[in-house]
Specification:
Layout lengths: L1 H17 L8 H36 L4 H32 L5 H39 L2 H40 L1
Amino acid sequence: MIGKIIRSIATLAISRIGSGSTPTVSPLLSSFRQESIRYNKAAMGVLAGWAVPNIVASSVLIGKTEHETKAFHQMNAGWNLVNLAIASIAYIKIDKDAQKRYSLSQTVAEQQRYEKLYLLNTGLDTGYIAGGLYMRERGKRTNDEKLKGLGKSIIVQGAFLLLFDATMYLIQNRHSKKNLYPFIK
Protein backbone atom coordinates (compact mmCIF):
# COMPACT_ATOMS: atom_id res chain seq x y z
CA MET A 1 0.00 0.00 0.00
CA ILE A 2 2.74 2.48 0.96
CA GLY A 3 4.72 1.46 -2.13
CA LYS A 4 1.69 2.16 -4.31
CA ILE A 5 1.30 5.64 -2.76
CA ILE A 6 4.99 6.41 -3.27
CA ARG A 7 4.83 5.25 -6.92
CA SER A 8 1.75 7.45 -7.49
CA ILE A 9 3.45 10.49 -5.98
CA ALA A 10 6.63 9.85 -7.97
CA THR A 11 4.65 9.44 -11.21
CA LEU A 12 2.78 12.66 -10.56
CA ALA A 13 6.02 14.52 -9.75
CA ILE A 14 7.77 13.22 -12.86
CA SER A 15 4.80 14.12 -15.07
CA ARG A 16 4.87 17.68 -13.70
CA ILE A 17 8.61 18.03 -14.24
CA GLY A 18 8.36 16.75 -17.79
CA SER A 19 5.49 19.02 -18.74
CA GLY A 20 6.55 22.32 -17.18
CA SER A 21 3.78 24.11 -15.30
CA THR A 22 0.89 22.38 -17.14
CA PRO A 23 -0.24 19.30 -15.23
CA THR A 24 -0.82 16.02 -17.04
CA VAL A 25 -4.51 15.26 -17.08
CA SER A 26 -6.00 11.85 -17.69
CA PRO A 27 -9.05 11.55 -19.93
CA LEU A 28 -11.10 10.25 -16.97
CA LEU A 29 -10.18 13.23 -14.81
CA SER A 30 -10.88 15.63 -17.65
CA SER A 31 -14.23 13.96 -18.29
CA PHE A 32 -15.14 14.20 -14.59
CA ARG A 33 -14.29 17.88 -14.52
CA GLN A 34 -16.23 18.66 -17.70
CA GLU A 35 -19.30 16.94 -16.28
CA SER A 36 -19.01 18.91 -13.04
CA ILE A 37 -18.70 22.13 -15.04
CA ARG A 38 -21.74 21.14 -17.10
CA TYR A 39 -23.77 20.66 -13.90
CA ASN A 40 -22.72 24.04 -12.55
CA LYS A 41 -23.43 25.86 -15.82
CA ALA A 42 -26.87 24.24 -15.96
CA ALA A 43 -27.46 25.30 -12.36
CA MET A 44 -26.68 28.93 -13.20
CA GLY A 45 -29.13 28.62 -16.10
CA VAL A 46 -31.79 27.41 -13.67
CA LEU A 47 -31.05 30.28 -11.29
CA ALA A 48 -31.27 32.82 -14.12
CA GLY A 49 -34.39 31.05 -15.39
CA TRP A 50 -35.99 31.59 -11.99
CA ALA A 51 -34.77 35.17 -11.68
CA VAL A 52 -35.87 36.61 -15.03
CA PRO A 53 -39.60 35.73 -14.85
CA ASN A 54 -39.67 36.87 -11.20
CA ILE A 55 -38.11 40.21 -12.16
CA VAL A 56 -40.47 40.72 -15.11
CA ALA A 57 -43.66 39.63 -13.35
CA SER A 58 -42.92 41.47 -10.12
CA SER A 59 -41.85 44.63 -11.96
CA VAL A 60 -45.21 44.69 -13.76
CA LEU A 61 -47.19 43.85 -10.63
CA ILE A 62 -45.52 46.49 -8.42
CA GLY A 63 -47.48 49.19 -10.20
CA LYS A 64 -50.75 47.24 -10.07
CA THR A 65 -50.81 46.29 -6.39
CA GLU A 66 -50.75 47.93 -2.99
CA HIS A 67 -49.59 47.40 0.55
CA GLU A 68 -48.52 43.84 1.39
CA THR A 69 -48.67 42.56 -2.18
CA LYS A 70 -46.70 45.53 -3.51
CA ALA A 71 -44.00 44.96 -0.89
CA PHE A 72 -43.92 41.26 -1.87
CA HIS A 73 -43.27 42.15 -5.51
CA GLN A 74 -40.72 44.83 -4.65
CA MET A 75 -38.69 42.30 -2.67
CA ASN A 76 -39.11 39.66 -5.40
CA ALA A 77 -37.81 42.00 -8.08
CA GLY A 78 -34.87 43.16 -5.98
CA TRP A 79 -33.96 39.70 -4.73
CA ASN A 80 -33.99 38.30 -8.24
CA LEU A 81 -31.86 41.10 -9.65
CA VAL A 82 -29.24 39.84 -7.20
CA ASN A 83 -29.91 36.21 -8.25
CA LEU A 84 -29.50 37.15 -11.91
CA ALA A 85 -26.23 38.98 -11.19
CA ILE A 86 -24.89 36.01 -9.22
CA ALA A 87 -25.91 33.54 -11.96
CA SER A 88 -24.34 35.68 -14.68
CA ILE A 89 -21.05 36.25 -12.88
CA ALA A 90 -20.81 32.60 -11.81
CA TYR A 91 -21.55 31.36 -15.34
CA ILE A 92 -18.77 33.53 -16.77
CA LYS A 93 -16.33 32.35 -14.08
CA ILE A 94 -17.26 28.69 -14.60
CA ASP A 95 -16.83 29.11 -18.36
CA LYS A 96 -13.42 30.76 -17.87
CA ASP A 97 -12.29 28.07 -15.40
CA ALA A 98 -13.41 25.35 -17.84
CA GLN A 99 -10.57 26.39 -20.17
CA LYS A 100 -7.94 25.60 -17.54
CA ARG A 101 -6.27 22.22 -17.15
CA TYR A 102 -6.35 21.04 -13.56
CA SER A 103 -4.22 18.41 -11.86
CA LEU A 104 -5.84 15.74 -9.72
CA SER A 105 -5.29 17.74 -6.52
CA GLN A 106 -6.69 20.90 -8.14
CA THR A 107 -9.73 18.98 -9.39
CA VAL A 108 -10.39 17.53 -5.93
CA ALA A 109 -10.00 20.96 -4.32
CA GLU A 110 -12.34 22.55 -6.88
CA GLN A 111 -14.93 19.81 -6.39
CA GLN A 112 -14.80 20.12 -2.62
CA ARG A 113 -15.13 23.91 -2.93
CA TYR A 114 -18.30 23.52 -5.02
CA GLU A 115 -19.79 21.01 -2.61
CA LYS A 116 -18.99 23.16 0.43
CA LEU A 117 -20.41 26.25 -1.27
CA TYR A 118 -23.73 24.54 -2.05
CA LEU A 119 -23.88 23.09 1.46
CA LEU A 120 -23.09 26.44 3.09
CA ASN A 121 -25.76 28.07 0.94
CA THR A 122 -28.39 25.58 2.18
CA GLY A 123 -27.67 26.84 5.69
CA LEU A 124 -27.99 30.45 4.56
CA ASP A 125 -31.23 29.61 2.76
CA THR A 126 -32.65 28.19 5.98
CA GLY A 127 -31.71 31.47 7.65
CA TYR A 128 -33.50 33.43 4.92
CA ILE A 129 -36.65 31.41 5.47
CA ALA A 130 -36.43 31.90 9.24
CA GLY A 131 -35.88 35.65 8.76
CA GLY A 132 -38.85 35.83 6.39
CA LEU A 133 -41.04 33.97 8.88
CA TYR A 134 -39.96 36.39 11.59
CA MET A 135 -40.69 39.43 9.41
CA ARG A 136 -44.09 38.09 8.41
CA GLU A 137 -45.01 37.32 12.01
CA ARG A 138 -43.74 40.69 13.23
CA GLY A 139 -45.78 42.37 10.49
CA LYS A 140 -48.87 40.52 11.69
CA ARG A 141 -48.31 41.58 15.31
CA THR A 142 -47.66 45.22 14.41
CA ASN A 143 -50.17 45.32 11.55
CA ASP A 144 -47.36 46.34 9.17
CA GLU A 145 -48.46 45.34 5.66
CA LYS A 146 -45.05 46.08 4.14
CA LEU A 147 -43.22 43.88 6.64
CA LYS A 148 -45.66 41.02 5.97
CA GLY A 149 -45.14 41.31 2.21
CA LEU A 150 -41.38 41.48 2.47
CA GLY A 151 -41.36 38.48 4.81
CA LYS A 152 -43.52 36.42 2.45
CA SER A 153 -41.22 37.17 -0.47
CA ILE A 154 -38.13 36.20 1.51
CA ILE A 155 -39.80 32.92 2.50
CA VAL A 156 -40.58 32.12 -1.14
CA GLN A 157 -37.11 33.07 -2.37
CA GLY A 158 -35.40 31.25 0.50
CA ALA A 159 -37.47 28.11 -0.17
CA PHE A 160 -36.52 28.13 -3.84
CA LEU A 161 -32.85 28.65 -3.01
CA LEU A 162 -32.95 25.90 -0.38
CA LEU A 163 -34.32 23.45 -2.94
CA PHE A 164 -31.83 24.69 -5.56
CA ASP A 165 -28.72 24.54 -3.35
CA ALA A 166 -29.63 21.23 -1.69
CA THR A 167 -30.25 19.66 -5.10
CA MET A 168 -26.96 20.97 -6.46
CA TYR A 169 -25.09 19.73 -3.39
CA LEU A 170 -26.59 16.26 -3.83
CA ILE A 171 -25.82 16.20 -7.57
CA GLN A 172 -22.21 17.30 -7.09
CA ASN A 173 -21.67 15.03 -4.09
CA ARG A 174 -23.05 11.99 -5.93
CA HIS A 175 -20.93 12.89 -8.96
CA SER A 176 -17.73 12.99 -6.91
CA LYS A 177 -18.53 9.77 -5.02
CA LYS A 178 -19.31 7.93 -8.24
CA ASN A 179 -16.68 9.36 -10.58
CA LEU A 180 -13.89 11.10 -8.67
CA TYR A 181 -13.16 9.17 -5.49
CA PRO A 182 -13.00 5.76 -7.23
CA PHE A 183 -10.56 7.37 -9.72
CA ILE A 184 -8.35 8.44 -6.80
CA LYS A 185 -8.27 4.91 -5.39
